[in-house]
Structures are given as structure tokens and as C-alpha cells.
Amino acid sequence: MDRRRPTRPSRRRALAGIGALVCASALLTACSGDDGGKPTLNWYINPDGQETLTALAEECSTDEYDIAIQLLPTSATDQRTQLARRLAAEDSSTDLMSLDPVFVPEFANAGWLAPFEGDLADEVLDDDVLQGAAETVEWEDEIFAAPQWANTQVLWFRKSLAEAAGLDMSGPVTWDQVIDAAASEGGTVGVQANRYEAYVVWINAMIQGAGGSIVEDTEAGRDAKVTIDSEAGKEAAAVIEKLADSGATQPDFTTSNEGTSLGRMFPAEGPGQFMTNWTFVYKNYEGTVGGTGGPADEEEFEDLGWARYPRTVEGEESKPPIGGIDIGVGAFSENLEHAQEAAVCVSSPEAQTQLAVNDGLMPSRGSVYDSPELQEAYPADLLDLFRESIDSGGPRPKSAYYSQISSAVQSRWHSPNSVDPDSTPQESAEFLRAVLDGEALL
After folding, report:
1. Taking CA atoms, which of 1, 13, 145, 333 is between 20 and 30 Å from 154?
2. What distances in angstroms separate CA 350 from CA 16, 45, 69, 169, 199, one per listed residue?
3. How far apart are CA 72 and CA 305, in angstroms?
4. Where in the chain is the domain with CATH 3.40.190.10?
5. CATH number, span 152-321+396-436
6. What's the CA gap between 300 and 294, in Å, rounded?
7. Mean pLDDT for back-to-back runs of 10 residues, the chain (442 residues)
8. What does the alpha-carbon distance between residue 424 and residue 412 come to, in Å, rounded to a whole number?
9. How far apart are CA 273 and CA 162, in angstroms?
């Protein structure tokens, strides 16, 4: 049955009292309303862009319902665990959810998400949505979430470091070139190599950049074909091995994450770094000019450069990682139509503009990149790079069993100091096959 979109009541603007919307309770029960029975929709968000998302909750509340923010844990793994527990219990108070794209297939396959149909489906996913983001919300030919913001990684670097190393950044560069350039000048290469999801993001991007994949035929579920033991898998492992042996690793290499990678770009002494990291980096450094851990002054900030994600192998186009947030609606919500209407509102072009300008969380819609607000907030070539990377990037395996796939890869590729092209891809393939077949435990 098509869920036709009702006429939207007038929106209330967030002028004051934002904090009053946030419900502190972590219980399964919904926040109680103050309007004589008017329903309150619970929206579970991750910690990124909290202030902007709280304002959007107020703006998208109507005369028929209110939206209340509920905060999820910081890590993607803990977010998945909390939401899965609620949905497996058929919790009727889980209305809206901010989902890492890799959660969508699992949750949709389990029957935990309500599909968008009819006019709502057309509004959620039209030709304006960038391809990389569009792929994350579909499962078995249905649309199960609304793309809110899209994320990708680019190569951030000190222009002075690249120049001193003689590395031409005007065209594509490879991981080998980046590592050699950093090592030759006493710089570092910042990555995310702790045993967590972002490490798999790096591994997956390099394998895809070499023309391969971790798994194929994911629609077969547990019977998916494991393909990580391939020439592409070996090329990815060779990059990790080279970086580990290069002298260009950061001190916390084996436990590095998105935040710790930032600190070496503008050290008090030394040439700085090359770093692969998400879109938030520009706003982070712009906001810390003259402060601890940031550029010393505007002149040093101008030394920050950016380029497309490095190639795994020469001549093969890179596949930048795809991330972001999709808005899903709980299948057991008591206010399903209201929740889907609200999901459309909080992922609108206007909402995406606010998230990009305020928080560095970039749009999933191509048209928003041309808005005056974004053109003023970001350099034009950086916007073009973000949009291009999202549109042509590579998603992580789209599988209902992605959690097991990711954990299995992490267990055999960590520590990065022990990665060996001759053994790691094969060992991880054997273990992943055993996990999917139910013959091994994580």
C-alpha cells in the first residue's frame, strides 16, 4: 500500500529552548508529550552535529507531532547494538533513527525498517541524490531510508610538505607516492588503523581501488562469495605493510582513529602530514586557527591542501569511502506516517545545508553544493572534490551480515604492524568463510 504524503502542517522555527527537546531517558518508553495527547516522535541520533540536529527536530515538529532527540553512543558498533536491541524487541517508541549506511541492509532484512513507498519514495530518492549516497538506502528494490548527509574521505596534506618532497598534487597520486613523500621529509601519514569500523573502511577502499572487493554476491546472505583473498586484497595489504615499515607512521598507528589522526597536521615542530580523513576536517581546522592542535595562524591554515583519495595501484581510479547518515523509520512505530513525513523534513535540502555549513557534514544532494550558503562556507574546489568523491566512491559491502563481515576482517587484519600480503588476505578469507558458515565465532 502506498503511504501518500499528507499536507504538511506549518513548521515551528527553532528560536529558543532547543535543549528542552532532548530527553535524557535511555529507556524503551517514549518521551511524554505536554500537549494533551499530541504524539512525540523519538529520533535517535549519533553525536555528530547535535546542536543542528536538535534545531532541525524543532523546525520539523508540527501541529500534529513533536520530535524529541535521543542520543546514541559515540561508536558505530555501540549505536548498532542499542538500536538492534530496541528493534528486535519491537519497540514502538523507536520512531526515527540516524543510521550508518551499513546498518540499512541488516535492519531492512530483519524487517525492522518501514519502507518508503509511493510519493514519499520519489521524494526521498530522486535524481538529485548523489549516486554513492543513493546506493546506501536501497535493499531488494525498496527504499528503506532517507539520505540525510553523505560522507567521504579525501587526502588532506600540508602543501609545503608535498612541495618539499617533490610530489605533484595537481593530479592523482598513489599510496606508495604519499608514503614515500612523507618519509623522505620526516613527515607522517595519518590513517585510522585501530581495531574498529574505520579500519575496515580503509581496507575496503584500497581493495576496491585495486578493482576487487571483500565479498561478492551479497544478496546470497551467508552464502556470499568471499573474495578478499585476491590480487586486490594483496595490493591493499602491501600498502599497509609499506606504511608500517616506512618510518612515516604516527606514534599511535595501531590505535589511531579519526580524531587522533588530526594532531600531526600542524605540529609545533616538523613538516606536518598527509592524512586520509572525512569531510569534517576542513571545518575542524578552520575553527581551531590559533588554538591548541590547529593552525598557528591564517597563513598556516592556507598551507592545508586536499586531493582525491589515493590510488591503490597506478592507473586504477581510487574508490573513496562512502559514509554519512541515512534516516530510517522503525517498522513498529505507533506513528508511522508522521515519522516518515518527519524523516523527509530532517533530510530536506534546507536541513542538509545547515548540517554542512554548521558541522562539516556534507550534503547527499548535488544541488545543495551549488547553494550560496555552501559556496560561501567552503572553497569551490573542495566542494567539487567532495561531490565528485561521493558520486564516484565505493560503499562497504551491502549485506545483511555486514557486522560479521566487518568484525571478521578486523580480527585478522589487526594489528596493522603484522599485515602480510602473502598471508593476511588468505587467512582473513578462510576465517570470514568460517564465520558466515557458522563454523567459527567472532
Report:
1. 145
2. 19, 18, 19, 34, 32
3. 33
4. 18-151+323-391, 152-321+396-436
5. 3.40.190.10
6. 9
7. 32 32 37 65 96 98 98 92 97 98 97 97 96 96 97 98 98 98 98 97 98 97 98 98 98 96 95 97 95 94 98 98 97 98 98 95 97 97 98 95 97 98 98 97 90
8. 7
9. 9
Distance CA 122, CA 99 (A): 20
Contact 155, 307 (CB under 8 A): yes
Phi-psi region of 284 (alpha: psi -120 to 50; beta: other; left: phi over 0): alpha
Which residues, in sequence order, are CB contacts of 329 under 8 Å at separation 6+? 95, 96, 97, 113, 114, 116, 336, 339, 340, 343
Please answer whether residues 358 and 51 qualify as being in contact, where contact means their C-beta atoms are separated by less than 8 angstroms.
yes
**Is 0.85 surpassed by the pTM of this model?**
yes
Tell which residue, 155, 153, 152, has the closest CA to residue 173: 155
For 18-151+323-391, CATH gives 3.40.190.10
Report CA-CA distances (Å) from 150 to 230, 320, 427.
29, 12, 33
In the block, cell 529520533 appears at: 43
The three cell numbers of residue 110 are 530483519
